[in-house]
Specification:
By secondary structure, the protein is of the alpha/beta class. It has a single domain, classed as Alpha-Beta Barrel (TIM Barrel). It has nine helices and eight strands. It has helices at about 5-15, 30-35, 45-60, 75-85, 95-105, 130-145, 165-175, 190-195, 205, and strands spanning about 20, 40-45, 65-70, 85-90, 110-115, 150-155, 180, 200. Helix 4 (about 75-85) packs across helix 5 and helix 5 (about 95-105) runs parallel beside helix 6. The chain is globular. It starts with a helix and ends in a 7-residue tail after the last helix. It binds pyridoxal-5'-phosphate.
């Protein structure tokens, strides 16, 4: 299997959903293979890794769309808005405030999704899956900070059947009129699409197993 053939196979299965190719820990050459296979939308978890990997590639391929799908620390807000088109991990008012400052300083206009946390895994980030909690961060981010928030993302708790979480995220997005629903990874993307995902984040099924570090 090659990266290009993996991409073709996944595209055939996901219909109209957007495919985000998650290239974390994989080297620039792997991204180039995906680019040769026609892929333009990529997801990365770390700001610094994305800067190093995509700086030259972005100049070469102006139509690349880069999503941040890993936790964002406040002190990296400015660097993140410089390089990412979409930041999927907005999860606090403090971060929203910092991002607002970063937008002013850079003039950039990325889109944002709010990260929702299901379950209580201590290492996971995201905000509670209720209309009140998400609605409150949404209003603050939009009205006070001027952020263009357009979606929700989640990673269901590990080792559990993800179906009910996918269903819940879709319901929350509908109630809050957020049109981008980012859920589903290599192991469960078809289920996520059945439940209403508009975009899936797929790494392993495209690039193979991840090296342990970048
Ligand atoms: C790594 C990662 C993915 C991709 O996971 P695979 O199982 O390799 O497809 C998707 N979403 C997030 C948030 C990730 O950190």
């Amino acid at each position: 299997m090659t990266i290009a053939s993996n991409l073709a196979e996944i595209r055939a299965r996901i219909g109209k959903a957007k495919l985000i190719a998650v290239s974390k820990f994989h080297p620039e050459e792997a991204v180039r293979e995906a680019l040769d296979g026609g892929q333009r939308v990529f997801g990365e978890n770390y700001v610094k890794e994305a800067q190093e990997k995509f700086r030259d590639l972005r100049a070469e391929y102006p139509d690349i769309e880069l999503h941040l799908i890993g936790h964002l620390q406040k002190n990296k807000a400015k660097a993140a808005v410089e390089i990412f088109d979409v930041i999927q991990t907005l999860d606090s008012r403090e971060l929203a405030k910092e991002l607002a400052k970063a937008l002013q300083e850079t003039g950039k206009r990325p889109s944002f999704y709010i990260e929702v946390k299901f379950g209580d895994e201590p290492k996971k980030t995201g905000i509670a899956p209720t209309v009140t909690e998400i609605g409150s961060l949404l209003a603050y981010s939009r009205d006070v900070c001027g952020l263009n928030v357009v979606g929700l993302m989640c990673i269901p708790p590990e080792g559990e059947n993800p179906q009910s979480y996918f269903k819940k995220l879709k319901e929350l997005a509908d109630i809050l009129s957020l049109s981008h629903i980012s859920m589903g990874m290599s192991g469960d993307y078809e289920k996520a699409i059945e439940r209403g995902a508009t975009e899936v984040r797929i790494g392993t099924a495209i690039f193979g197993p991840r090296p342990s570090h970048f």
